[in-house]
Amino acid sequence: MSSTLLRTVPALRGALRASGTPKAAGALASTSFVRGKATLPDLPYDYGALEPYISGKIMELHHAKHHQTYVNGLNSALQTIAEAESKGDFTKAATVAPLLNFHGGGHLNHSLFWENLAPASREGGGEPDGALKKAIDTDFGSFDSFRRQMNTALAGIQGSGWAWLVKDKSAGTLGLVTRANQDPVSGPYVPLMGIDAWEHAYYLQYENRKAEYFEAIWNVINWKTVASRFEKA
Amino acid sequence: MVNFSNLLQYLALQSPLGSDSTNTTVNLAKMGLTAYTLPALPYAYDALEPHISAQIMELHHAKHHQAYVTNLNKALESHVAAVAHGDVATQIALQQAIKFNGGGHINHSLFWKNLAPAGSAEASLDRARSLVSEIEKTWGGFDQFKTAFSAALLGIQGSGWGWLVREAGNGAGLRIVTTKDQDPVVGADVPIFGVDMWEHAYYIQYLNGKAAYVENIWNIINWKTAEERFTGQSEEKTEL
Questions:
Q1: How far apart are CA B132 and CA B119, in angstroms?
Q2: Most Cβ neighbours (<10 Å): which of A67, A80, B11, B53?
Q3: Would you say B200 is a known binding-site residue?
Q4: Do A8 and A91 share a domain, yes or no?
Q5: B21 — pLDDT class (breaks 50, 70, 90)
Q6: Do A61 and B204 touch (CB under 8 A)?
Q7: CB contact, 8 Å: A225 with chain B?
């Protein structure tokens, strides 16, 4: 897992910085190594652009504070590991693994999340079409059934975490997975679309009524980005 | 304990089981079980201000804690029915819901009682002479303990709790533990006091500034309750 993160996180950051548009999602599959520190990617829309479904205040805190903290934590973990490596202190390097997983996962998850959202007045909402729609119909029965299953998975998360629509590369099918805290999607799964179920993602607007947030967020899912990830997966 | 003769009698008379919370309570009662209920707070919702806002306390108690109680009762109702039907697969499937919601009920019940209004007699360290003495012995000083406990709280990745516990073994020493999600401290270890690090415990007031929440929580620890739990004088264990 760690080696995957080390490889993909800088590439992800590079890709997001290079274009700063939803099109950058296509570059996520790249594994080319870009040296340097992780940086906070720009949002491809304004903080207020997802209203009324996600408030501008939530988006600003979520991006400028929470995501920034994961970026800082990731850089700090990578630096500690590099220093430990240079001293041959592998015990020290190993103790940082949970921080690398948490902050690296947090950076990766949020970078994917921002790009698979879009204002309802632009690409956000609606239903997927083409090959993605066909795959969803085949693997979940219908789009409505997929939506229900995803919302059930989100509601069932006990604590902080994420739910993802994934492509299972080994089986060739779509699937739904949940991850605790900031654990990233890895292994045979390629993340296509993620929904953040941490309380900080909705609490200021929806308080304890998280089911309302899980209903509302479908109005701002960017199916163009999801379809593009699906084609490249 | 489950009263099996009542339970079987009940199941023979009535099925299927209702699912709303009123029916759940009634159904559990018919099985000879008492449904868990939301305990009243020992202070007003605004009593912990300015350290925890009334809005947070009301949502936290009336909505979040209530949801754990409701879902615990539902899970237990399904569980006793599964026991009566000899359905072990369903019993196993319910374990996680019982742990999560039962843990949520236990944790919050302990939490409310180990908080007290700032400046009240209970919030004074003087009320925990023997506990503080043991803390100083263990960590080399109260400030060192505070630093270690705060660091443990801020190190939690995701939702969870930080607890000061009196260990069952190891000469009944004190220890700081963190638990994820709603995992409770159960078994022979005794929770002395806990701090809720779920975002719903502070977010409306502190936003992403959880370090400030952790700093302020020290003003509202109920040291009288903590001392009673430490010395074994607390009645809570039987209440829960």
A1: 18
A2: A67
A3: yes
A4: yes
A5: low
A6: no
A7: no
From chain B, the residues in CB contact with A107 under 8 A are: none
Q: Which residues 78-117 of chain A have a CB within 8 Å of chain B?
A: 98, 102
Long-range contacts formed by A12-20: CB under 8 A, 24+ apart: A12/A107, A12/A108, A12/A111, A13/A38, A13/A39, A13/A41, A13/A107, A13/A111, A16/A41, A16/A42, A16/A111, A16/A115, A17/A41, A17/A42, A20/A44
- The helix or strand, by DSSP H or E, that contains position A101, with its residue range, turns out to be helix A97-115
Q: Does A161 touch chain B (CB under 8 A)?
A: yes
Terminal CA-CA length for chain B: 14
Domain boundary assignment for chain B = 4-28+36-113, 121-231
Give the domain extent around A206: 130-232
Cβ-defined contact of B157 to A204 (cutoff 8 Å): no
Mean pLDDT, to the nearest integer, of B127-151? 97
CATH of the domain at A99: 1.10.287.990
Shortest distance between the Cα of B157 and any Cα of chain A, in A, equals 7
pLDDT at B4 over 80: no
Residue B105, marked binder:
no
Does residue A6 register a pLDDT over 90? Answer: no
Fold type of domain B4-28+36-113? Helix Hairpins (1.10.287)
pLDDT tier at B237 (50, 70, 90 boundaries)?
low
Residue A86 lies in a domain: yes
Q: Is A61 on the interface with B (CB under 8 A)?
A: yes
pLDDT for A27 equals: 41
Question: Do the Cβ atoms of B158 and A181 come within 8 Å?
Answer: yes
Give dist(CA A186, CA B21) in Å, integer. 40
Tens of pLDDT, residues A55-110: 999 999 999 999 999 999 999 999 999 999 999 999 999 999 999 999 999 999 99
Say whether the ipTM exceeds 0.85: yes
Q: Identify the pLDDT of residue A25.
A: 40
Question: Are B157 and A158 inside 8 Å of each other by CB?
Answer: no
